C-alpha cells in the first residue's frame, strides 16, 4: 500500500506536526505501508527518498515557517499521488486544498489529522481582532475543512469532543502519535548537565516545545517565581525556539529570574533531547491548546514525572496512576506544587515509578499498526498475508 502525506510543515521546522509525520513514516514501513511526502523546502535540505520538496518563502512574522505557492504545491501533490492508494493531509493551509483537490481528481480517499486547535491558537497572533468573532470563524473554518474529508484523525478524546461541538460530521478516529520508548529511556542526564554547566544537585524543571505564545510559558515563569520562595535554587530549562522568545526573556528579567531560567534552543531528537529529559527532576507544562501533548509522553518514557495543567489533549494523559499531577490553573498553586515536589521527593516517589509504566501504552509501533488498519479500511485495500503485523524487534 502507498500513501501520500502532504503538509505545510516538516523538518527542519521543529514542531509536533513534523515529529508526528516522521514517526509514522518510519514505523509504517513495518506495516507494509510506503509513505510518500510532499512538504515545503526551507533551504538546502539534502534529497531524501520519498520526500518531494516545494519551494516556498518565509511567512511574514514567523520566518521559521514557509508559504508555498498554490500552483506548485498542487502540481507536486497531483503528480506524487497518481500511483497512491490514499491521501493523508497533515495541515489545514495550502496542503489541505492541494491534497483534497488531487484526491478528488484521482478518485482517492482522503483523510486529515487535526493537529492544531485554531480556536485557541489564532487569538495569540491576531490580538487586534475581537476574540469572540475570531473563535467563531476558526470553528466554521475547521468544520468546513473536516466535512470535506472521508475521515478525520484526532490525537485525543478532548479534540474529538471539540470537533463534535463544531458540527463535524465526517467519521472521526482518535489516534495519537506514539513515541520510540527506548530512545527516550536511554538519555544521559549528567552529560546534559555538564554540557550546560548545571550542578549535579541543582533541581531542574523542564519545558520542551515550541517557544510560542499559545504554549503559555509565561505562566511557568510566574509559577517559578512562587516555587523559588520554598526552593530558591530551582532552575527552569526551556528547550525550544519560536516567536515568543524575546517576550519571555523580557518577562524573565522583569521577574528577576535571570539566574533561574536558561533557554537552550532546539535539541537533536536522537540523543541531545533524551539527555535533556534525563537531566530533569520534573517536566512542567501549561499549554491550554494542545491536541495531544506528545512531550508529556516523552518525559514519562524518560522516567520524569509531569506537573501540568489539564487542558484539551493533555487530559487524556493527566490522571492518577500515570506519573502525573495536575494542580489548579493558577501560577501560585502551580509554583507551590512544584516547590513541594522538589523539597519532598519521597512524598512523590510514586510518580517516578508510574511514569515509565504508563508510557508503555504509547509506543510508536502500536500507533502505526492502528493507522495502517485505518488506511486499509478507507482505501479498501486488503492486507497481504506477508505483511508483518508489528515492527521487527
TrEMBL record:
Its EC number is 2.4.1.157. Pfam families: Glyco_transf_4, Glycos_transf_1. It is an enzyme of class 2 (transferase). The keyword Hydrolase does not apply. One of its GO terms (molecular function) is hexosyltransferase activity. Residues 195-347 form the Glycosyl transferase family domain. The keyword Acetylation does not apply. It comes from the Bacteria. Keywords: Glycosyltransferase, Transferase. SUPFAM superfamilies: UDP-Glycosyltransferase/glycogen phosphorylase. Residues 14-182 form the Glycosyltransferase subfamily 4-like N-terminal domain. PANTHER family: SULFOQUINOVOSYL TRANSFERASE SQD2 (PTHR45947:SF3). This is 1,2-diacylglycerol 3-glucosyltransferase.
Amino acid at each position: 500500500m502507498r500513501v501520500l502525506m502532504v503538509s505545510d510543515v516538516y523538518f527542519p521546522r521543529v514542531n509536533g506536526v513534523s515529529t508526528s509525520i516522521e514517526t509514522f513514516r518510519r514505523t509504517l514501513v513495518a506495516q507494509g505501508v510506503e509513505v510518500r511526502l510532499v512538504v515545503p523546502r526551507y533551504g538546502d535540505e539534502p534529497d531524501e527518498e520519498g520526500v518531494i520538496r516545494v519551494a516556498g518563502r518565509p511567512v511574514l512574522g514567523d520566518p521559521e515557517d514557509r508559504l508555498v505557492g498554490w500552483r506548485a504545491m498542487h502540481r507536486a501533490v497531483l503528480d506524487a499521488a497518481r500511483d497512491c492508494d490514499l491521501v493523508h493531509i497533515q495541515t489545514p493551509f495550502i496542503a489541505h486544498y492541494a491534497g483534497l483537490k488531487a484526491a478528488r481528481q484521482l478518485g482517492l480517499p482522503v483523510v486529515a489529522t487535526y493537529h492544531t486547535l485554531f480556536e485557541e491558537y489564532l487569538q495569540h497572533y491576531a490580538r487586534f481582532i475581537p476574540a469572540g468573532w475570531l473563535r467563531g470563524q476558526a470553528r466554521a473554518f475547521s468544520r468546513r475543512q473536516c466535512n470535506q474529508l472521508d475521515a478525520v484523525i484526532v490525537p485525543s478524546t478532548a479534540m474529538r469532543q471539540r470537533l463534535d461541538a463544531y458540527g463535524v460530521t465526517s467519521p472521526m478516529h482518535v489516534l495519537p502519535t506514539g513515541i520510540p520508548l527506548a530512545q527516550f529511556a536511554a538519555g544521559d542526564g549528567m552529560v546534559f548537565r555538564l554540557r550546560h554547566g548545571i550542578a549535579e544537585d541543582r533541581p531542574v524543571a523542564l519545558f520542551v516545545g515550541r517557544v510560542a505564545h499559545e504554549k503559555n510559558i509565561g505562566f511557568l515563569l510566574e509559577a517559578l517565581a512562587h516555587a523559588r520562595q520554598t526552593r530558591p535554587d530551582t532552575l527552569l530549562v526551556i528547550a525550544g525556539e519560536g516567536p515568543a522568545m524575546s517576550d519571555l526573556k523580557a518577562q524573565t528579567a522583569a521577574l528577576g529570574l535571570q539566574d533561574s531560567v536558561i533557554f537552550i534552543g532546539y535539541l537533536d531528537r536522537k540523543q541531545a533531547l533524551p539527555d535533556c529529559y534525563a537531566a530533569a527532576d520534573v517536566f512542567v507544562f501549561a499549554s491550554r491548546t494542545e491536541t495531544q501533548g506528545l512531550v508529556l509522553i516523552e518525559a514519562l518514557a524518560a522516567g520524569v514525572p509531569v506537573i501540568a495543567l489539564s487542558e484539551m489533549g493533555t487530559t487524556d494523559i493527566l490522571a492518577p496512576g500515570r506519573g502525573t499531577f495536575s494542580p489548579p490553573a493558577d501560577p501560585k498553586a502551580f509554583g507551590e506544587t512544584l516547590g513541594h515536589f522538589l523539597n519532598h521527593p519521597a512524598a512523590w516517589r510514586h510518580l517516578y515509578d508510574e511514569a515509565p509504566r504508563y508510557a508503555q501504552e504509547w509506543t510508536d509501533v502500536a500507533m502505526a499498526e492502528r493507522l495502517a488498519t485505518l488506511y486499509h479500511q478507507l482505501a479498501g485495500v486488503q492486507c497481504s498475508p506477508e505483511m508483518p503485523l508489528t515492527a521487527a524487534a
